[in-house]
């Protein structure tokens, strides 16, 4: 029996990752580092799960705020660490982002370095550590002197650099694109990212629907099940040792086309005119407009991102094992149907200020 340590539970990807790990490695042990604010929720979700143990902890604290006994047990038994805990909010204040994403990762790194039987450290970064770079972004690139669109990007960049600088640790860095729900069920935990499109369209469903500009920028969406399957594949592959991988769509759609597909699926009609992105951005500068349409201003940047994420190394490793990213057009209906069924669920709505 070996132990898998996960941070970020009961977050969406961490929860799905745990389920898949337990299905594939039924006899192993699972240690979940859970922030005290999420402990009761995590306890309810795992009450009937065998071989799962919760560890109340805090990645922003030295030693992860574990007791001496807990830390010693984990040091001796942990074989795999999946570090998913982070602040993913695009509008997150700098101080909070640095505390969780940078200091938190540094603390996890230090703990990982103390593990005596570690086989692999899997760190969840983001494709958007590329910041405001344009053109082709390769998987073996990180620091190109780029600037960033928000504190989320800049702190994830700083955190990934800390992981890449580790010595004596076998790691794999995962860089997802914009993660949406399960490609078959549509299930997701939060309506953010592309779901802002659905929330916006819901508000104007009885009006002539506009395109948001004429940009030909690509919008890189990937379903959660692909991220989980690819991550588990890479975590056990010798080809993935001490490397970073873009878990992005190898054939992404233009933002305008993706918007059209969502609009047709949700409202049964196509956009018929085009509104200036500058006007939309100006309008979303006002909190009343953001709250009305339930859309964060920061999300607009990702619909006009002109970066192209080369995922050839990930594709090469994953296709040998039968793992492929599905085409957005083949699962957009499932995403939209799930949204329709749960759009009034307050727990899934992002609090837009």
Structural commentary:
- It is built from 12 helices and 15 strands.
- It is an alpha/beta fold.
- The chain has 2 domains: 204 residues, 3-Layer(aba) Sandwich (Rossmann fold); 114 residues, no CATH class.
- Strands 3-2-1-4-5-7-12 form a 7-stranded parallel sheet, with helices on both faces. A two-stranded parallel ribbon has the order 6-15. A two-stranded parallel sheet has the order 8-11.
- Strand 1, helix 1 and strand 2 form a beta-alpha-beta unit.
- Helix 4 packs parallel to helix 5, helix 6 packs across helix 8 and helix 8 crosses helix 12.
- The longest helix is centred in the first third of the chain and has 20 residues.
- The radius of gyration is 20 Å and the shape is globular.
- The mean pLDDT is 94.
């Amino acid at each position: 029996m070996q132990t898998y340590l996960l941070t970020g539970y009961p977050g969406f990807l961490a929860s799905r990752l745990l389920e898949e790990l337990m299905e594939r490695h039924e006899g192993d042990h699972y240690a979940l580092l859970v922030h005290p604010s999420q402990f009761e929720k995590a306890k309810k979700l795992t009450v009937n799960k065998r071989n799962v143990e919760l560890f109340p902890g805090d990645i922003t604290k030295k030693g992860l705020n574990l007791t001496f006994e807990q830390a010693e047990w984990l040091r001796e038994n942990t074989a795999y660490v999946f570090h998913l805990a982070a602040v993913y909010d695009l509008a997150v204040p700098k101080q909070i982002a640095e505390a969780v994403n940078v200091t938190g990762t540094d603390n996890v790194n230090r703990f990982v370095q103390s593990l005596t039987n570690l086989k692999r450290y899997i760190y969840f970064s983001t494709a958007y550590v590329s910041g405001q770079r344009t053109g082709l972004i390769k998987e073996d690139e990180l620091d190109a002197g780029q600037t960033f669109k928000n504190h989320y990007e800049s702190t994830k960049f700083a955190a990934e650099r800390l992981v890449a600088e580790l010595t004596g640790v076998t790691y794999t860095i995962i860089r997802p694109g914009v993660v949406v729900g399960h490609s078959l069920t549509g299930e997701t935990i939060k309506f953010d990212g592309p779901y802002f499109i659905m929330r916006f369209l819901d508000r104007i469903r009885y009006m002539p629907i506009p395109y948001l500009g004429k940009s030909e920028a690509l919008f890189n969406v990937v379903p959660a099940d692909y991220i989980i399957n690819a991550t588990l594949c890479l975590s056990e592959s010798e080809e993935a040792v001490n490397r970073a991988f873009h878990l992005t769509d190898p054939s992404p759609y233009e933002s305008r086309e993706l918007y059209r597909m969502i609009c047709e699926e949700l409202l049964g009609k196509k956009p018929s005119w085009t509104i200036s992105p500058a006007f939309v951005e100006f309008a979303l500068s006002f909190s009343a407009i953001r709250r009305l349409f339930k859309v964060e201003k920061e999300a607009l940047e990702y619909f006009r991102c002109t970066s192209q994420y080369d995922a050839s190394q990930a594709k090469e490793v994953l296709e040998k094992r039968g793992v492929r990213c599905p085409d957005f057009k083949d699962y957009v209906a499932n995403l939209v149907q799930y949204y329709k069924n749960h759009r009034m669920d307050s727990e899934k709505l992002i609090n837009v200020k």
